[in-house]
Write a structure and sequence with these properties.
The structure is a single chain. It is elongated, with a radius of gyration of 25 Å. The strands form two sheets. The chain has a four-stranded antiparallel β-sheet with strand order 4-1-6-7, with no helix packed on it. It has 157 residues and is an alpha+beta fold.
C-alpha cells in the first residue's frame, strides 16, 4: 500500500546528534584554552620559585626583545618571598580578585616567591615565616597572630 515510516524523528534525531557534537567540540575547545592558559601562567618569573636564583633575570615582554644585555645582570627581587621558619607554616597568596597562587602549609626551610604586580597575602601565624616585600624584610608579627596584607611591586623593579 503506502510507505510507512517507523521513525518520525529521523531528521530531528540527526539534528540533536549534530548539536550534541558541536557542544562537545565547544567544551573541548574551552577546556583546552583554560588548560593552556593555566600552563602559560607558570612562565619563569611569574610563578613559584624554590630559590630566587632559579628565576631568570629577563622578564617577559610584549614586543621583540633586544637581548638579555638590556636587562641588569642581577636577578630581580620577587614581589613577595615567604620563607618558612617553623615545622608548619600555613600560607595563602593570591592575585587580588584572581588566581590563588598558594594555599597550603610550607615546611621548615621551604620558600615561595612570586613576581606578580600585586598580591594579597594571608599568614595564619605571622611569627612562623620570614616575609620579603620587594627584597626588603617585613617585620614579623606576634606569635600566633594572623596577618593579612597586600603587596604591590615597587616601581623600580
Amino acid at each position: 500500500m503506502g510507505r510507512h515510516r517507523s521513525d518520525p524523528l529521523g531528521i530531528a534525531r540527526l539534528a540533536l546528534v549534530g548539536l550534541a557534537a558541536v557542544l562537545l567540540l565547544a567544551v573541548i575547545v574551552v577546556g583546552a584554552g583554560a588548560l593552556l592558559s593555566t600552563f602559560g601562567s607558570e612562565e619563569p618569573g611569574s610563578g613559584v620559585a624554590s630559590t630566587p636564583s632559579a628565576q631568570p633575570s629577563a622578564g617577559s615582554s610584549t614586543g621583540p626583545s633586544t637581548g638579555p644585555s638590556a636587562e641588569p645582570s642581577t636577578p630581580r627581587a620577587p614581589t613577595v618571598r615567604v620563607v618558612c621558619r617553623a615545622e608548619r607554616c600555613p600560607v595563602f597568596v593570591r592575585v587580588p580578585g584572581g588566581d590563588v597562587l598558594i594555599d597550603r602549609d610550607l615546611t621548615r626551610g621551604e620558600e615561595a616567591s612570586y613576581f606578580q604586580p600585586e598580591l594579597d597575602v594571608v599568614l595564619d601565624d605571622a611569627s612562623t615565616v620570614q616575609v620579603f616585600e620587594n627584597g626588603t624584610v617585613r617585620s614579623p608579627g606576634p606569635a600566633g597572630e594572623r596577618q593579612a596584607f597586600s603587596v604591590k611591586r615597587s616601581a623600580d623593579q
